[in-house]
Amino acid sequence: MKLFYTGPLINVEMLVVMLEKHAIPAKQEFVDPNEPDDGDLNRLAKVFVPEADYEKARRLFYSDREDEL
């Protein structure tokens, strides 16, 4: 698995759902797993995707933004 995104939990959860809709299995985990899970949607989390699907995921979510730079 390769790190794809790090950000607030609310974004991570939506990203995982969107990746799975595109047949890309994703795994999420908290940046600091020792913090208590108190339901804070701003808690930092990471999204991992399989190495083989990384480029597909990157194209889906970042290719349009590269044109804006």
Commentary on this structure:
The chain is α+β, with helices and mostly antiparallel strands and 69 residues long. It contains two helices and three strands; from the N terminus they run βαββα. It has a three-stranded antiparallel sheet with strand order 1-3-2, covered by helices on one side. The termini are far apart.
Quaternary form = single chain
Low-confidence stretches: none
Taking strands numbered 1, 2, ... along the chain, how are they ordered across the largest sheet?
1-3-2
Q: Give the distance, in angstroms, between the N- and C-terminal Cα atoms.
A: 28 Å
**Count the strands?**
3
State the helix count.
Answer: 2
Mean pLDDT: 91
- Structural class from helices and strands? alpha+beta
Strand content: 15-25%
Largest sheet: 3 strands, antiparallel
- Tell me the series of helices and strands, N- to C-terminal: EHEEH
Radius of gyration: 13 Å
Shape: elongated
Proportion in helices: 25-40%
Write the layout of secondary structure elements.
Layout: E1 2-8, H1 9-21, E2 27-30, E3 44-49, H2 54-66
Antiparallel strand pairs: 1-3, 2-3
Summary of the model, kept short:
The protein has two helices and three strands, in the order E-H-E-E-H.
Labels describing this entry:
alpha+beta; 3 strands; 38% helix; 25% strand; 69 residues
